[in-house]
Amino acid sequence: MNKEALTNKPDSFYITTPIYYVNAEPHIGHTYTTVLADTLARFWRLYGKDVFFLTGTDEHGDKIMQVVKNKNADVKSYVDRVSGIFSSTFKELGFTYNRFIRTTDADHEQTVTDILQKVYDSGDIYFGEYGGYYCVGCERFYTEKEMVDGKCPDHQKPLEYISEKNYFFKMSRYQDWLIKYIKENPSFIEPERHRNKVLSFLKEPLSDLCISRPKSRLPWGISLPFDENYVTYVWFDALINYLTGIGYPDSPDFKKYWETAHHLTAKDILIPHAIYWPTMLKAIGLQPYKTLKVHGYWQVDETKMSKSLGNAVRPLDMKTKYGFEQFRYFLLREMSFGLDSSFSEELLVERINSDLANDLGNLVSRILGMSEKYLDGVVKKLDGYEGKLKDIAKSIAVELPKFMNNFRFRKAILKIWELVTAANSFVESSAPWTLNKEGKTQELAGVLYSLLESLRLLAVFLTPFMPETAEKINKKLGVSLKDRQTYTDLIEWGQLPDGIKINKGEGLFPRIEFSKNA
Ligand code: MSP
Q: Which end of the chain lies in a sparser environment, N or C, as judged by fewer CB atoms within 10 Å?
């Protein structure tokens, strides 16, 4: 298949998650965005692209300082500890990031300092006085228009009026440029509903961005290079991680990856990413990132997750209880990109039992079981018994890169499941047990070859979504993904070699009995 026909150029792919605040431990929300990034990274690597996947933690600012004050702890040891929980959790979940960045990393602090100086020297930063309504939860000022009954629309907490002398970034200067850029580049912010939100925000005059905090009030942050009495505003610091992560300004990685930068976030941090960040990049003299992809919010049992409700869903708990592949599958399968979704363990168990234990798990064990029973587990390569399976596999192979290009994870999974469903029907319609009984050995071997080959292809397609499951299927089939083989090599029908021995082994997904109190 022609590789160029499947996706756009260029051949590098840079994917980022938000860097997470260390005021909470990893929960379903952080896990979701990172699963998406990991899935994309794995897919494009398999495809043969040169991928850089960045995630990490955001460690400065009022929000962190408040937690530490409440806990009476030393700030640095606190952020080290919680950042360590994020990185060890992410390792344990098998995320394949290239770098875990921390805003307290020395190279990041240096990059922020250099950029501040550069923007200051170019005249885009000035000193002034400002009063406004500040939400510590969001770490940003709200306009009166944005507030709801004097409260932050997101955190529902009364906003504090703060007035102080600070440094400002001349963000307003870039308003017209930004509106034009967003309008001329429809894929810059997606899905459309979020793009429209940004455009409607930009209908009002944009104020300049307050980018400092006096050390007398907040000592925890990166000092301004041109005024030691101030630290950098946490968003001006945090957004720059996307540049530090790939070695801005001089590293070859920066030159290679920046032009293909895709930022994944949820809708909560749309404004900083869609407005502050492109205007900052413009002021630095860099081209904007390629796309910002904005997903919806996970609610838990129909309500917002919050510390006070104590309903946070923790990924390591899910791993212990259900298996991380199962949880990962659920996240990818359940949420339509851009819309909110509801999580409940009951739903998770339903999906595990129906899609994984029943559809996929049974399929794998039935096909392998019959191959062992009827053919002593030895693969006999025979063409001409594919039914619809070959065509379905081919259409998945063609569609998958398109879905991944458009961040359509759910659609990609539903598409892959077409082969699971078709293979299950093929087992029924071809009835290998009857062919065996009737002594139709040639047809039996042909039918089983087509089914085994479908399993091989399912493992290829599932690799980015459920990497461990894909590996287990490959192992059962006695094949391995060789380093040099990419998607385009692997998707051609008929590569399962003649004469190899398969091994049914254990089932992939045990069925789960749901119990509310478990
Ligand atoms: N530190 C900032 C981001 C700076 S990026 C330069 C921040 N951190 S955060 O810890 O609050 O993480 C917010 C992000 O976590 C969301 O944008 C999303 O990626 C993820 N999620 C947190 N809760 C979520 C849900 N309930 N549902 C889905 N994802 C959410 O904002």
A: C
User: In the structure encoding, which two tokens stand for residue 91, read together?
Assistant: 């390792």
Cα-based distances in Å from 461 to 43, 381, 420, 481: 9, 21, 11, 12
Q: Write out 49-101 in H/E/C secondary structure.
A: CEEEEEEEEECCCHHHHHHHHHHCCCHHHHHHHHHHHHHHHHHHCCCCCCEEE
Q: What CA–CA distances, in Å, run from 254 to 220, 251, 259?
A: 29, 5, 9
Give the chain's length: 518
Ligand 1 pocket member 33 (CB < 6 A):
yes
- Token duo for residue 27: 């929960």
| pLDDT above 50: residue 397 | yes
Residue with tokens 């998945």: 396
What is the rounded CA–CA span in Å between residue 359 and residue 352?
Answer: 10
Residue minimizing CA distance to atom 21 of ligand 1: 29
Q: Which atom of ligand 1 lies nearest, measured to the CA of 21?
A: 10
Question: Tell me, what's the pLDDT at 308?
Answer: 67
pTM over 0.85: yes
Q: Which of 208, 130, 138, 126 is nearest to 162 (CA)?
A: 130
The pLDDT tens digits for 265-286 are 999 999 999 999 999 999 999 9
Contact at 8 Å (CB) between 346 and 514? yes
Helix runs in 406-504, H state only? 409-430, 432-437, 441-462, 467-477, 487-490
- List, in order, residues 6 or more apart from 484 with CB less than 8 Å away: none
DSSP per-residue string spanning 221-260: SPEETTEEEEEE-HHHHHTTHHHHTTTTTT-HHHHHHGGG
Ligand 1 pocket test, pick from 235, 269, 409 with the greatest ligand atom count within 8 Å of Cβ, gives 269
Strands in 314-383 per DSSP E: 341-343
- Which residue is catalytic, options 60, 152, 267, 415? 152
- Residue 135: Cβ within 10 Å count: 22
- Could you tell me which of 224, 277, 222, 268 has the C-alpha nearest to residue 58? 222
DSSP letter assigned to residue 10:
-
Question: Residue 18 CA: which ligand 1 atom is closest?
Answer: 5
